[in-house]
């Protein structure tokens, strides 16, 4: 009886009990840990051309509106020197409008990065990538958490850098009108940090909407409705209920948290922070639960 020589390189690896050997090339090591999943999600995030375009658009919008706001504020201050009504309006707003110039483009930054959050999750389902993602990470929650961490950290970092850059661009424009802007002042730093956290929260809400609806258009329209349409509708509809409810919309939580003094008919700073946190936590938890239970 002759014996058959077996090439060691073609041998299978021992499989589970009762299954013989696993096919050659099959890994028997541990499954992907969170750091591996996080790295995978970051690679997907930074290699998409659409993502880079949206991130670049955010920088351009924030810096552009900062420069435009600096020019407008300078024109307003110049008019106040010869126009008593403009001077009264300038005084009524505290006389220090320059401090808010770098953050004047935040409303548009939240729309862009919120839409990015929607797309990052909804595109997983529209392209069929979710099948591959959840086949590699069967528990699903680590993949969702990694994607959420990537989008929130990116939104915070990009917003902070854009606001600071907008401040640098605005400085020479404001100086032409003898207006001073101290980017190192406590109020400037507060505005930068709070607005960056806020935009990161909007991106998280957008991602939760993308996971819940699994549709890019529906998620973006829901985001626009929540942050842009609802505040206007609540302001136009008469009634004490809508006046009070308007305070608890997520888009109306930034002003109380950045105000030097408490503004009338608004939430306290700590209340606004809790409301914004609830707007993030509830959709994210609901999205994670449904993601775990739904079919891909």
Structure overview:
With 296 residues, the protein is mainly α. The protein has one domain (33-293). Helix content is 69%, strand content 1%. The chain contains 11 helices and 2 strands. It has helices at 34-46, 49-80, 84-92, 106-126, 129-136, 141-175, 186-213, 216-236, 240-245, 254-258, 269-293, and strands spanning 13-14, 21-22. A two-stranded antiparallel ribbon has the order 1-2. A hairpin with a 6-residue loop joins β1 and β2 (21-22). The termini are far apart. The relative contact order is 0.11.
Low-confidence regions: 1-30
| Range of strand content | under 5%
Gross morphology is globular
User: Over all CA atoms, what is the radius of gyration?
Assistant: 25 Å
Q: Tell me the total number of β-strands.
A: 2
Please, what is the oligomeric state?
Answer: single chain
Mean pLDDT: 85
SSE run: EEHHHHHHHHHHH
């Amino acid at each position: 009886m002759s014996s058959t020589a077996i090439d060691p390189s073609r041998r299978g690896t021992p499989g589970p009990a009762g299954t013989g050997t696993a096919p050659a090339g099959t890994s028997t090591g541990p499954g992907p840990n969170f750091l591996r999943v996080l790295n995978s999600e970051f690679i997907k995030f930074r290699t998409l051309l659409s993502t880079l375009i949206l991130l670049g658009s955010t920088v351009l919008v924030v810096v552009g509106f900062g420069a435009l706001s600096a020019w407008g504020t300078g024109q307003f201050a110049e008019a106040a020197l010869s126009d008593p009504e403009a001077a009264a309006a300038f005084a009524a707003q505290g006389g220090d409008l320059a401090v808010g110039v770098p953050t004047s483009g935040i409303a548009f930054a939240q729309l862009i990065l919120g839409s990015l959050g929607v797309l990052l999750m909804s595109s997983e389902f529209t392209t069929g990538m979710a099948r591959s993602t959840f086949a590699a990470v069967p528990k699903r929650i680590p993949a969702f958490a990694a994607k959420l961490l990537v989008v929130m950290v990116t939104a915070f970092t990009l917003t902070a850098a854009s606001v600071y850059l907008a401040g640098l661009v605005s400085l020479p424009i404001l100086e032409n009108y003898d207006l001073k802007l101290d980017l190192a002042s406590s109020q400037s730093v507060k505005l930068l940090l709070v607005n960056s956290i806020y935009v990161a929260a909007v991106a998280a809400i957008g991602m939760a909407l993308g996971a819940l609806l699994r549709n890019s258009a529906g998620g973006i329209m829901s985001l626009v409705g929540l942050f842009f349409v609802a505040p206007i509708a609540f302001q136009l509809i008469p009634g004490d209920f809508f006046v009070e409810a308007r305070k608890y919309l997520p888009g109306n939580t930034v002003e109380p948290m950045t105000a030097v003094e408490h503004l009338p008919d608004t939430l306290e700073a700590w209340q606004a922070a809790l409301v914004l946190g609830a707007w993030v936590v509830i959709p994210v938890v609901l999205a994670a639960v449904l993601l775990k239970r739904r079919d891909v």
